[in-house]
Amino acid sequence: MAKFSKNSMVLCFLVAIVFVISSASASTRLKKFDHPTKGDGTLNFLVIGDWGRRGTYNQSHVARQMERVGEKLDIDFVLSTGDNFYDNGLTGIHDSNFVESFTNIYTAKSLQKQWYSVLGNHDYRGDVEAQLSPYLRKIDSRWVCLRSFVVNAEIAEIFMVDTTPFEEKYFTTPKDHIYDWRGVLPRQAYMANVLKELEKALSESTAKWKIVLGHHAIRSAGHHGDTQILVDRFLPILRKYDVDFYMNGHDHCLEHISDTESPLQFLVSGAGSKAWRGDTKGINRDDVHFFHDGQGFMSVELTPTEAEIKYYDVFGSVRHRWNRSKLLLHSAM
Ligand SMILES: *[C@@H]1O[C@H](CO)[C@@H](O)[C@H](O)[C@H]1NC(C)=O
Ligand SMILES: *[C@@H]1O[C@H](CO)[C@@H](O)[C@H](O)[C@H]1NC(C)=O
Ligand SMILES: [Zn+2]
User: Cβ distance 215 to 89 under 8 Å?
Assistant: First the structure.
């Protein structure tokens, strides 16, 4: 009898451990959105960043060109690289800036698709939880914004990551800005968790194309330049799991930069409204293939073996294009 109760205690203990382990790993799994594609094995989408200014600074002109390209490519969705609402995010879920900078600007039929968005540093200056609120979907059903999440679009998986908390300067020298860090503190634990969740999701991915998207650049020849902490903490993970593209905004320009040590490509699309900053750094670097200081956006066309990236300016002209064929890449190696 004594032996039985001892065994059952051990059993209870083991069950408790298994429960703790499984609930801990469940809490570190990124929310995943399954986005069914057209069924012909292709996926087309647009990428825009740093845009919400009630149509000003050519935001409306960029929107018109997105309409045209979106229709031509019959896009599946739009990705936003953050800084969605200027200057200070949304003040709350009823802030008219949401409708005036999003719903009333991207009105075209071709843009009535899901918009998957991350937060940028400006978004953290408002009521950060407003943009994350499912209530906004009642106002405009296109809006999907979470801190970090995964879009599973069959041939591609897109890992959306919250990079703003990685920039220490927003915490140590916020200047006259007030950041809403609810849900982020303590910062070190938050960052460790983002990296752990990303690595887990990447390690489990079987998608043909792996894309990671955040607000801040890993590599940029624009005003803000490279983000050292992302070079240190994200880049090794992206290389390890054969990520094809890292996409971001933050610098108000369009860029295409290659990694020097892997096939990874850095694609910057942060030119949704205010641009022409005029203070570029290192555009003559060997790894920088394209830099456009003005407004514009990017399109991505994928098949299971081919990728085509195009960058458009405010007039809708293609300023840069780039292809990758996975078949060629592999047979060459
Ligand atoms: C809008 O785009 C036009 C054409 O490139 C440019 O001349 C103008 O300066 C832009 N306006 C702003 C505010 O950036
Ligand atoms: C790039 O891809 C497009 C569309 O698949 C194709 O028409 C074009 O020939 C490709 N260009 C190169 C250089 O492979
Ligand atoms: Zn930014």
Answer: no
Ligand nearest to the CA of residue 294, numbered in listed order? 1
For residues 227 and 225, what is the distance between their CA atoms, to the nearest angstrom? 7
Continuous segment of H or E residues that includes residue 131: helix 128-132
- Of 100, 91, 80, the residue nearest 151 (C-alpha): 80
Q: Ligand 1 mean position to 58 CA, how many Å?
A: 6
Report pLDDT for 214. Answer: 98
**Is the Cα dihedral 277, 80, 217, 324 positive or negative?**
negative
Token pair belonging to 189: 């634990």
Chain length of the chain: 333
Strand partners for 313: 296
Nearest to 164 by CA among 131, 130, 143, 187: 187
User: Both tokens of residue 201?
Assistant: 């999701």
How far, in Å, from the CA of 12 to the mean position of ligand 2?
A: 61
Nearest CA to ligand 2 atom 8: 323
Indicate the domain borders of the chain: 31-331
Report residue 280's pLDDT band, with 50, 70 and 90 as the boundaries. confident
Cut 0.85: pTM above it: yes
Q: Give the dihedral sign, CA 245/251/277/107.
A: positive
H-state helical runs in the chain: 2-27, 59-73, 97-98, 128-132, 136-139, 169-172, 187-204, 228-233, 235-240, 326-331
Task: Check pLDDT > 90 for residue 173.
Answer: yes
Spatial neighbors of 8 by CB under 8 A, at least 6 apart, are: none
The CA-atom distances, in angstroms, between 198 and each of 65, 164, 182, 214, 216 are 33, 15, 21, 12, 16
CATH number for the domain whose boundaries are 31-331: 3.60.21.10
Contacts of 285 by beta carbon, 8 Å cutoff, 6+ apart: 221, 257
Which residue in 150, 153, 141, 182 sits closest to 165, CA to CA?
182
Tokens of 231: 């070079």
Query: Rounded to whole angstroms, how far apart are CA atoms 277 and 61?
Result: 18
